[in-house]
């Protein structure tokens, strides 16, 4: 009996307190919730008018903006006054956020001054006002003044719908600015796409938790023309609008459609919120009448409630754990693995890679959340596949353009080679050599595009080439090659399969050294064998690179990231990193003792070949019958004064393997036949 009395007294006490808390809901709604909603409406309207003023800047809009600002300030004053009357009934966390909102509304003059001075873009103005509205929504998030589960669920659902209405208001302001400008920027379109996804998710989650009466109101709204027109507006912007391109003709009706839906959502949400608050009073009176019954049925109710709660909590907890594990597996394993496969060029089936996160669930909310996660993963994987396809397309474009340029440049070099053999004028020949050298550099840049696309340039050598000749060939592909000093031992060669890439790699580094150092200084290219291969150092005497930048560049050279089209400032170093990784070459930058920069290459032993050392043979040379002129670089042909002038021989300093063979079809056939005879 004593235990029953204790249970009855405890249950009665809880029941009475619950009734009192239910009776407090109406006062908090009238003094806090409703004024906050009014403040949100005024802030949304001021945001829309502010964006209109930034878009058109007319005197009439200036007047409307001043009127709206006074309304916003009046709503802030009313919120301050009414909330003080319900301070004791307001939960502490909700009260703290309410004070933050009031302080932010009092500091709106700073934002307004920036708008008046046109120091903000339309998108910035939308974000600034949205941050204040977000604080107001956080006041709603802390509306925990009732222990009744149904009221709490309905309140949370309405909060989600209210947040989706805020996103509709943001979209309305954004499309208004785009309509004024006649086009959307990339940032505005990205922001709009994000708003669409969040709005639909919040609206779906919110309406799915409403009871039958409230859901009927939103069901009527969903089938209304204003809602279907707004969904069509969202789809049009996402599918048809291109950044920087003119808007379609129907864009003139977008702001009107968005504003109409904002007003309709506001009316529907306010009606639903008032109905939810009003439902607390009958519940309170019913609780007070049920106090007499609680004593007799308290124990059974407690036991039944404990059992049901335990079963429900265990079910929901298990489903949430499953959902959490699926989401963690998606973020931690599946998506990274998918991205790695796409980078390797593998084909990915989006449908097969996006199974439902939660297949079945006894809880509607968990099932809805699982469907939302499934939609998110489908969108993420689809976006990753799209980016991979775009990257493949860009690589194909690079490769196609580079191959075409390489073919044309090769033909141009052949034509220049023929002209060099026909022209005897030294001045004209020197200028022709300059064009030849420029064409060679253009060919290197074309090969750089081929390397960026992941392909291999067409040039190659079968036999090893001396490292000295490789360095000389790289120097000849640099514009300011006369400033480069090459000091390389002659006893080492490079494997033929690596010659093309190493020449390109050295040329990029030598060109950087010549470009970023004073024109009167020399660039040193030195090489020596080391324990783990062969080291080549390229040293300039420029201004150097800061240590932070050096560390960043060395990290990129050691592990080249995925190529970004927007990052083209150091395209040569990116090509260097790709070539180094292809042949397992280590490239590092460091500060030289002279204040400049030194690039050190470590060629692995696998591609370095040590030449056979032989004793030189000294033979007596026969004296020519007629000694050539002292300055002749090639044997004179004929006896004229013009024929006796010195002539420069192109690529005379290169090894035979590195000299370009650009002649007619018969010459190419003969050179190939000779190489075949030598290989056999």
TrEMBL record:
Record's signal peptide: none
Alphabetized SMART domains for the sequence: HATPase_c
Keyword Transmembrane: yes
Pfam short name (any one): NIT
Keyword list, A-Z: Kinase, Membrane, Phosphoprotein, Transferase, Transmembrane, Transmembrane helix
Catalytic activity field: ATP + protein L-histidine = ADP + protein N-phospho-L-histidine
Keyword Cytoplasm among record annotations: no
Region feature (Disordered): 624-661
SUPFAM superfamilies noted in UniProt: ATPase domain of HSP90 chaperone/DNA topoisomerase II/histidine kinase
EC number annotated for this UniProt entry: 2.7.13.3
Residue ranges annotated for the NIT domain, each copy included: 34-283
InterPro entries: HATPase_C_sf, HATPase_dom, His_kinase_dom, Nitrate/nitrite_sensing, Nitrate/nitrite_sensing_bac, TCS_sensor_his_kinase
Domain Histidine kinase: 502-607
Protein name in the entry: histidine kinase
Organism: Microbispora hainanensis
Species classification: Bacteria, Bacillati, Actinomycetota, Actinomycetes, Streptosporangiales
């Amino acid at each position: 009996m004593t235990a029953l009395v204790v249970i009855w007294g405890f249950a009665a006490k809880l029941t009475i307190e619950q009734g009192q808390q239910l009776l407090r809901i109406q006062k908090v709604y009238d003094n806090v919730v409703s004024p906050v909603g009014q403040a949100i409406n005024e802030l949304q309207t001021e945001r829309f008018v502010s964006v209109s003023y930034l878009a058109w800047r007319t005197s009439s809009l200036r007047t409307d903006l001043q009127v709206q600002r006074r309304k916003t300030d009046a709503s802030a004053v009313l919120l301050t006054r009414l909330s003080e009357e319900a301070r004791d009934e307001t939960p502490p966390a909700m009260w703290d956020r309410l004070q933050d909102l009031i302080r932010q509304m009092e500091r709106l003059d700073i934002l307004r001054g920036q708008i008046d001075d046109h120091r903000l873009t339309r998108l910035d103005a939308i974000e600034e006002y949205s941050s204040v509205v977000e604080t107001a929504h956080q006041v709603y998030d802390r509306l925990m003044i009732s222990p009744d589960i149904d009221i709490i669920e309905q309140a949370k659902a309405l909060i989600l719908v209210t947040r989706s209405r805020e996103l509709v208001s943001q979209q309305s302001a954004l499309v208004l600015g785009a309509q004024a400008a006649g086009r959307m920027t990339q940032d505005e379109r990205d922001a709009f796409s994000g708003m669409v996804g969040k709005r639909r998710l919040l609206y779906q989650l919110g309406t799915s938790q409403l009871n039958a009466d409230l859901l009927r109101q939103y069901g009527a709204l969903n089938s209304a023309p204003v809602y279907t027109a707004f969904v069509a507006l969202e789809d049009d912007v996402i599918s048809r609008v291109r950044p920087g391109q003119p808007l379609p003709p129907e864009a003139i009706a977008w702001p009107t459609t968005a504003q109409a839906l904002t007003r309709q959502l506001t009316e529907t949400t306010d009606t639903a919120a008032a109905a939810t608050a009003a439902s607390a009073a009958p519940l309170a009176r019913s609780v007070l009448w049920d106090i007499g019954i609680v004593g007799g049925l308290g124990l059974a109710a407690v036991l039944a409630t404990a059992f049901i709660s335990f079963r429900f909590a265990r079910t929901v907890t298990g489903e949430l754990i499953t959902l959490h594990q699926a989401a963690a597996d998606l973020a931690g394993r599946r998506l990274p693995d998918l991205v790695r496969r796409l980078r390797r060029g593998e084909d990915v089936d989006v449908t097969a890679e996006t199974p439902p996160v939660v297949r079945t669930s006894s809880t509607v909310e968990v099932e809805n959340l699982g469907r939302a996660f499934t939609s998110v993963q489908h969108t993420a994987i689809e976006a990753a596949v799209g980016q991979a396809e775009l990257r493949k397309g860009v690589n194909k474009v690079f490769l196609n353009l580079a191959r075409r340029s390489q073919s044309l440049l090769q033909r141009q070099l052949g034509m220049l080679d023929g002209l060099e053999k026909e022209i005897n004028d030294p001045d004209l020949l020197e200028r022709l050599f300059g064009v030849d050298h420029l064409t060679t550099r253009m060919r290197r840049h074309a090969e750089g595009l081929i390397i960026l696309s992941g392909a291999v340039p067409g040039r190659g050598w079968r036999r090893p080439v001396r490292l000295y000749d490789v360095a000389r060939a790289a120097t000849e592909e640099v514009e300011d090659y006369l400033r480069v000093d090459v000091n390389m031992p002659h006893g080492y060669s490079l494997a033929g399969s690596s010659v093309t890439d190493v020449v390109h790699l050295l040329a990029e580094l030598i060109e950087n050294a010549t470009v970023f150092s004073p024109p009167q200084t020399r660039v040193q290219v030195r090489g020596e064998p080391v324990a783990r291969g062969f080291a080549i150092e390229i040293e300039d005497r420029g201004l150097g690179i800061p240590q932070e930048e050096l560390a960043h560049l060395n990290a990129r050279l050691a592990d080249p990231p995925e190529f970004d089209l927007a990052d083209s400032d150091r395209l040569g170093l990116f090509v260097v990193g790709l070539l180094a990784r292809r042949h397992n070459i280590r490239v590092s930058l460091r500060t030289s003792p002279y204040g400049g920069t030194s690039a050190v290459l470590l060629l692995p032993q696998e591609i370095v070949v040590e030449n056979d050392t032989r004793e030189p043979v000294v033979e007596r040379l026969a004296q020519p019958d007629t000694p050539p002129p002292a300055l002749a670089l090639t044997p004179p042909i004929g006896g004229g004064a013009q024929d006796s002038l010195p002539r420069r021989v192109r690529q005379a300093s290169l090894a035979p393997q590195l000299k370009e063979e650009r002649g007619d079809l018969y010459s190419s056939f003969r050179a190939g036949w000779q190489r075949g005879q030598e290989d056999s």
